[in-house]
UniProtKB/TrEMBL annotation:
This is Cytochrome c oxidase subunit. Pfam families: COX6A (PF02046). Keywords: Membrane, Mitochondrion, Mitochondrion inner membrane, Oxidoreductase, Transit peptide, Transmembrane, Transmembrane helix. The keyword Mitochondrion applies. Coiled coil: none annotated.
Length: 102
């Protein structure tokens, strides 16, 4: 089976690279970072921003499931009903959301 001249040259290049002492590795990773990683992160950030703009941020309807928001003992801070990192817009209390004006 004969190989094309391009395949022979590629095989020689790969064989020479495998026997070298990894001198060009840092340069290769630097180029890959600049060419692929930085634009990839930028595209992901733009995608997340556009999806956040298109998504409505309204409160979901409150459903009083019996297995959620169980309070067997009061919390030791505040009024005892709010968790430590309570967010009144997203976290419901056992009886529902605090206010609906958001």
């Amino acid at each position: 089976m004969s190989l094309s001249p391009a395949a022979v040259a590629a095989r020689r290049l790969l064989a020479a690279a495998s026997h070298s002492s990894h001198e060009g590795g840092a340069r290769t990773w630097k180029i890959l970072t600049i060419v692929l990683a930085i634009p990839g992160v930028g595209i992901c950030m733009a995608n997340a921003y556009m999806k956040a703009q298109a998504h409505s941020h309204g409160q979901p309807e409150f459903v009083p499931y019996s297995h959620l928001r169980i309070r067997t003992k009061r919390f030791p801070w505040g009024d005892g009903d709010h968790t430590l990192f309570h967010n009144s817009h997203t976290n419901a209390l056992p009886k529902g959301y605090e206010s609906s004006d958001h």
